[in-house]
Structure formats: structure tokens, C-alpha cells
Amino acid sequence: MRLDYDGILTKASLFIVLGTAVYMSMLTLVYSGQLHSKSQDNVFFIPVTSDIKSNTVVSCYYNTPDNDGKQLLPASIDPHLCTHINVAFARVIDKKIHLDEYQYQTITELCKLKQENPALKVLISVGGAGEASGFRDMVANHASRKIFIKSIKTILRNYKLDGIDLDWEFPEVHKLYKMKGSRERQHFSQLLREIRMEYLREKRDYLLTVAVAAPEAIVDVSYDVQQINNYVDYVNIMTYDYHYYTKYTPFTGFNSPLFSRPSESLYMGTLNVNYTVNMYLNKGLDRDKIVVGIPTYGHSFTLVNADNPNIGSPASGYGSLGSLGFVNYPDVCLFVANSNVRVIFDDHAKVPYLYKQKEWTSFDSAHSVMEKAKYIKDNRLRGAMVYSLNADDYEGKCTSKTNNTILFPLVQSIRDTLITKSTQDVILV
Ligand SMILES: *[C@@H]1O[C@H](CO)[C@@H](O)[C@H](O)[C@H]1NC(C)=O
Ligand SMILES: *[C@@H]1O[C@H](CO)[C@@H](O)[C@H](O)[C@H]1NC(C)=O
């Protein structure tokens, strides 16, 4: 059995590279007053006149398969599961959007799902962790951004796609140590504006979305949130990877806690979904542009002491579950079926963790993702982003011993909570 961790690793590896060393040094700067959050880069301000729709969003990232082993293929995705599918990831090479040959084939296959669900939107997601240099080179001036925008238009037209999602991780962040006056943050806003202007000029209702960081220290440096708010349809916030094992953070913790726990204060109290959402609201992101990221993967740890399995306990490395600490949901549920595995749902953070001897894993369950979807609904946010379809139980392994196999149980739970079932479903139930 081979599971697909590669996409997850690509996405998250930059977090690992940056690690807490960066967080901590940024914090030091923030608290010592050296790193000021810039106010709005006041260089342009145009109203966006296109009528941006406000339907509920369930945007799902789908990592394109390579030719290796058993993987999730487009034909196995229920066309009604997500409202939007983001094909991950295209790269920026020589200022142009670049996809590999097999990725083009995947896009063609994925778009066939629209025959069954014409409302389904398929977007290309550009970037991901480790792909920042292509962006840096491309945003630098108007002429190079123009080359990029032209290449986007060609792909959107030729493959009948619905839009693009920009996932630059992260503007300015590589320059943090130098503290020189880079203009990447401003150039990113300009890129968004120019793409929106081009859509308007062409009278196309293509979508423009971005995937953005959760930690406040990165947000302050990387984004002019009000400018982003002006030009995008909605924002996918990567509200996960708040805690995972690194040698700088050798402690257990939750991948994606919804709320803080009473024992957490100051910096620790900011590492949760609720804090991040309120931070973006305070920085001027509209409620109906906030799409909250929900992970289908968890993070595993090896406890130093099996007798101390609490949250925040010392850890000596990744757990044996998953790959480099990244655990897909089916691996979690199959492990939970073993004897002597304790599963505890934290009532404050609203997420579960499991342990058995020295194995400790933070994960999301059908219950915890439902809590997050309820939070999204209660706070009248736009919807949920899921990372990723590949890490959910797309083969129904978790329910294979019952008569009612459920495919994609986590995404299903999110969808059912956010989008009221159709009358037909209600009658059938
Ligand atoms: C969510 O965040 C807001 C703003 O920071 C805070 O006032 C509220 O108490 C938080 N909710 C919970 C349940 O922690
Ligand atoms: C599955 O269905 C069979 C036949 O309808 C029934 O006898 C059995 O108890 C069911 N098993 C479970 C786990 O529900």
C-alpha cells in the first residue's frame, strides 16, 4: 500500500523550512518594536465593479497524481462534493505559468466532472511551498507581470477553466532577516489588481483567489489585506500547521485547533483558527471573502515519556504514523481501530488527538470538521477550504467494515454542514 503524501509535503515543507526559528525571530522583532506592520500601501485604489458572487464555497485542493503508485484520480471524485476544485500546483517558470504534461491531462479529466455538475468550478492553483522564487522574479515589474497574465489567459481559455488561485508562500518572507525595503508585498497587490483589470477588460467572470498564511507575523509582513480584499473573489486561509514536530518545537500540539485553550497565553494563544479569522477581519478582509482552511491530514509525534501524553508534552520526533509526521486521515482511522488507542476530544480546541504508548497524533475527524463548518456558518464566513482531497478517506477504508461505505467522510461532513442538503436528499433520508 502506498499513500500519497507528496502533495502535502510540497505544500507544507516551507513551513518546516521556515520553522519556528523564523516565527520566533519575527516575534522578537515584533515585540522589540523593530518590525512594524505597514499600513495600507497607498498607491492605488479602485473599486472593483464586477459583481462578485457570494455563494457558499467548499474549495478543495487536489494534488495532481504522478505516475507512481496508487493515487486519487479525477474520475474518483464525486462531482457534487466540492463547489470549487483547485488543481495543485502549477509553477511559475520564466514569468509564465507552467504545468507538466500529466497535469494537463489531469485537468482535462477533472473538467469532465462538470458534465455531471455544471456548477462545479475548476481553478489552477499556482505556487505552493518551495515555489516562491518564480513569483519573486515575475512580480518585479509591470512587463514581467504582463507576461504572466498573458500566460494565465491562454491556459484558462484553452482548458475552459474557471480561474486561478495564487499561492505564493510568502511575499517578503525570505527578506525578513535583512529588513531591507523590498516591495514584494506591494507588487503582489499590483499583480492582483492587474489580473482583475484584465478579467474586467475581457468581460470574463473568471475567478481570482489567493491562499494566505495564518501566522500573524507572516501576515503583517506579506500582505496588504485591504488591497487583497479589493481584487479577489475570496481568500483561502491556511489555518493549519499551527503545531508540528520540529527540533525547535519538540512538543505535542494541535495541527488546527479551532479555539485556544485556557492555559495558552500571548503567542500560544494566537495559534488557532478563531484568532486568525478575527485577525483578518480586523485587517479589513470582508466576512464573505473569508474561506477557512480545514486539513484532512494530521501531525504525528513520538512522546519522550509514554506516561505524559498531554497537549504540550515533550516529543522526540515525528510519530511512526504517516510520513515525516504528516498523517492522512485513513491512516488515523485504521490506527484508531487497534486496541488500546486512546482518542481524546479537546473541548476547548474542538479537535481530537490520539495516543498509544509513545505514539501521539493530532488530527481532524468528521466531528471536528463539522465544528469548524458550524463556526464558519455561525460567523457568516464564505465557506471552507479543504487541504486536501488526497488525504481524506477517498477509498472508504474507515467504513469498509460497515454496510454503508462513506467516501471522503471529512469533506462530506463539511459539505453537509455548510450546504443544506437538497430536498431530494432529505426525502431519501
Ligand atoms: C474568538 O476570538 C475572539 C476575538 O479574538 C474572542 O473574543 C473570542 O473569545 C474567541 N472565542 C473563543 C471561544 O475563544
Ligand atoms: C449488513 O447488512 C446485512 C444484511 O442486510 C446485515 O445482516 C448485517 O447485520 C449488516 N451489518 C452491519 C455492520 O450493519
Automatic annotation (TrEMBL):
Cross-referenced InterPro entries, in alphabetical order? Chitinase_II/V-like_cat (IPR011583), Chitinase_insertion_sf (IPR029070), GH (IPR017853), Glyco_hydro18_cat (IPR001223), Glyco_hydro_18_chit_AS (IPR001579), Glycosyl_Hydrlase_18 (IPR050314)
* GO CC terms of this entry: extracellular region
Q: Which Gene3D superfamilies match?
A: 3.10.50.10, Glycosidases
Keyword Zinc on this protein? no
Q: What keywords tag this UniProt record?
A: Glycoprotein, Glycosidase, Hydrolase, Membrane, Signal, Transmembrane, Transmembrane helix
* BP GO terms, sorted: carbohydrate metabolic process; chitin catabolic process
**Which residues belong to any copy of the GH18 domain?**
56-421
Instruction: Classify the source by domain of life.
Output: Eukaryota
Q: Where are the transmembrane segments?
A: 12-31
Q: Does the keyword Transmembrane apply?
A: yes
PROSITE patterns associated with the record: GH18_1, GH18_2
Listed GO MF terms = chitin binding; chitinase activity
Q: Which family does it belong to?
A: Belongs to the glycosyl hydrolase 18 family.
Listed name of the protein: GH18 domain-containing protein
Q: Which organism is it from?
A: Bombyx mori (Silk moth)
Q: Which gene is transcribed and translated to give this protein?
A: 101737108
